[in-house]
Amino acid sequence: MKTLKTLNSLTLAASFLAAAFFCACSETKNPQDAGVWEDEPAIADNESSSSSLLEIESSSSVLEESSSSVKVESSSSSVVGIHIPDNQGCVPDHIEYIDIQKQLPAAKKPAKMAEIKADSAKEPSYAAIMMKEEEYGVLSAFVEKRLEFLEKQGAAHDSAWIQAATELLRELGLDSLLADRRMPTYYLEYTLFFLYGDGHNQLNAELVNDFADGKLEPGNYCINNQPYDSFDRIAFSFMPIGCVYSDYEILDPEAIIQNIWRKCSGMPYCSDAMVGKFNKDSSLICKKSSYYNFSTISAYYTNWEIASPLDVETSGIPCDVDGKFIVSRKNPERSYVCTTDNGWDSTKTVNVEMKQVPCDTAGALFKSNLNPGAVYICRDTVWTGKYFVDREYTLNAWDMATPFEAEVVDVPCEKNGEMTKSVVKPDSFHICRNGVWGTATRLERETYGTPCDEEGKRVESRELQSMYYVCHEGEWRQFDEVTCENGARYSTANEKYKNYKTNYACKDGKWYSSNDESWEIPYELYFNPDIEYGSFLDPRDGRTYRTIDYRGTTWMAENLKYQGAPGTFEVDKQFCESDNCKNSGYFYTIKAAEQACPEGWRLPNSNEVSLLRIPDGSEKSGEIEIYTSTRDLFNTLFTQMNSLGVGYNGLDTYGLSFTKTGLFNRDAHVNSDCQYFWFLDTEEDRFWLHDTGESEISLAEITTYEIELSNRFYSVRNDIKAPVRCVKE
Asked: What is the DSSP string of 396-439?
């Protein structure tokens, strides 16, 4: 007999089970009569649920003593000589999943096929096989007293051992299981030691003594005081399964535990002949299932399982006609459909009821006859949240209508354009379109009752800021969906929030909005059409720039777009995300910025940048112009097509047309809501800022609140790529 280490969890688990699982149970003389069977089946309240060993243990922290329960014996009253090994696999106590990454030993030896039928009378009994295959002494310890008794009566050792083992299997309710479903003997050893061992390589002595007469008292071995589904996957706690395991490594030990429970509960063995039988008292149904086995493509076993609602509600009803269906009594939204090849299956009642009704009119409604109170809707598309993203999928099928959709099922849709207010969603309206009710859009809600009888007639939006509707070709349209005249501009604000403006500009018949956050807006729309700009032709590449005079300095009204040349510098075009450089200009390193401006132009100095803080013309009037807020002051510097202007009266008052450029710190685009450009420090700046005598170039940052010259990027400026704004020398 092999000596192996004791499983770490067995001390706690087996000690618990030795006390907690032993409960008195009454044997039923005729197990076939046990409980209430499938006549008048009831709906099971819950699906089968699994319970870990930890849950079993914690639920029985306080054990009640009774005359029918067995007290945990001390080591002096236990049978010695069992050598159960440690669980050397990848499964710790109370496991919920298998870690297949760890490379630890698998089971002691490969499991045999679970399904081996006794086809010949000459085949040795399972008890005889157990005697030869026993490895850890669990069975010998269990039948020890019975073996002594039989041998004293004159029986040979081997025949006495086989008789005692046969009687043990009968008493535990395992004889039918092991005649029908052979398994490695060490599965039985591990499982019995888990149930009846005391954690010190010993079996409970009272059990061993009780079996001396070949019989077991139910109160000594029964475990039917535990829920049947608490045994689900419990073999993970004690079987030496490896990192990679097969179903049968778990199913067979569980079947042993479940059949002991079954015997104690008076349930018959789940044989092929019993498949489909449902026991109402226990909510168990006898099923035949398959699993993948390394030895065979498919292996089958029968077992009692927690009955699902499908099992319960179809029990006793033959599946003899394809398409035959049963509507669930507990949940009429579910139905069960018969296919003679595969049996009963669960589906939505809408799929059954509407199978022959074509879904060819999106929005059509249908009152269910099978599910009282339910309404179906023909849905062409459906929004589904998947991977944290809402996406629209094509459906083209009947679906359950929402309460909002269903509330108009009995309201005739006779007049096109007729609207009715929702009770379920008070802010929403239904609208009749070509005989079918739909959800009214914002445009339909806001133009309802206003005739579209004049081309170009306008209606201001009450709900959406910066929107109005235009009567175009006999129907109301959003103004930005109607073809516009090239060069047209429009600035609009919601009546409720007058300061929140959106600027629109028309190019080639299409409206562009400052809300778009898109570099697709043609760059010429960024300039103020009410300002007369100067111009400068860069001889290096032939590009013409708009210019503007501001407080005695001539500025380029747009960022530099010079790409450089061999021998000087060349910009890295990888930083032109989505072709943004056509609007924002290129992004230059500090060394490239020193050489970027054309002859006769240079980088602005800090004094010139500081003057941007003061409105132009304030000195001429002898007083500084009063602004309602600091935001208003700096937004006058931003382009009309920049979304920073939304809500902050961005008017591009002085034609400088700054845009949201952000900058690149190495390869990361940061601070995209700000305008940056390189500028020259003065001697005073160098003294206060860094006093290093190094390059005089620093970064300016324009936000909606301020112009920042403190150069907070100074320590990483060699990693920075930022735009260039040139001023005339």
From this structure: EEEEEPPHHHHTTTTS---STT-EEE-SSSTT-EEEEETTEEEE
Task: Tokens 């939505």: give the residue.
Answer: 348
What φ, ψ does residue 553 adopt, rounded to 5°? -125, 135
Of residues 451, 452, 421, the one with CA closest to residue 439: 421
Q: Are 346 and 310 in contact (CB under 8 A)?
A: yes
* 572/664 Cα distance (integer angstroms): 11
Structure tokens, 375: 């309404």
3-state secondary structure of 569: strand
Q: Which residues contact 61 (CB under 8 A, 6 or more apart)?
A: none
386: β partners: 389
For the chain, give the percent of residues with pLDDT over 90.
45
Q: Name the residue with tokens 């020890």.
A: 144
- Identify the CA nearest to 190 among candidates 3, 7, 425: 7
CB 379 within 8 A of CB 397: yes
Closest CA to 608 of 681, 538, 671, 661: 681
Task: Using DSSP, state whether 207 is helix, strand or coil.
Answer: helix
pLDDT (tens digit per residue) in 149-161: 999 999 999 999 9
Under 8 Å between Cβ of 642 and 659? yes
**Where exactly are the structural domains of the chain?**
10-314, 317-399, 524-728
Cα dist from 225 to 57, 58, 80, 637, whole Å: 13, 15, 28, 80
> For 660, phi and psi rounded to 5 degrees?
-80, 105
Helix ranges restricted to H, 105-244: 126-133, 138-142, 144-152, 157-172, 175-180, 185-196, 205-210, 218-221
Distance in angstroms (rounded) separating the CA atoms of residues 163 and 676 = 93
* Top mean-pLDDT range of 82-86, 421-425, 488-492, 612-616: 421-425
Separation of alpha carbons 249 and 91, rounded Å: 13
- The span from the CA of 467 to the CA of 364, in Å, is 32
DSSP-derived letter for residue 658 is: B
Pairing of strands 284-291, 278-279: antiparallel
List of E strands, 233-386: 278-279, 284-291, 299-306, 325-327, 334-339, 343-348, 365-367, 375-386
> How many angstroms separate the Cα of 701 from the Cα of each of 202, 270, 609, 705?
80, 79, 10, 10
Please name which of 75, 214, 76, 203 lies closest in space to residue 137, comparing C-alpha atoms.
Answer: 203
Q: Give residue 378's identity as a one-letter amino acid code.
A: C
Identify the DSSP state of 72. P
Q: Tell me how far apart the alpha carbons of residues 118 and 181 are, in angstroms, rounded to a whole number.
A: 9
Q: Residue 195 is encoded by which pair of tokens?
A: 């149930």
Largest CA distance in the chain: 130
Residue at 150: amino acid letter: L
Distance CA 239, CA 219 (A): 26
pLDDT computed for residue 667 by the predictor: 87
Closest listed residue to residue 654, CA positions, set 522, 533, 521:
533
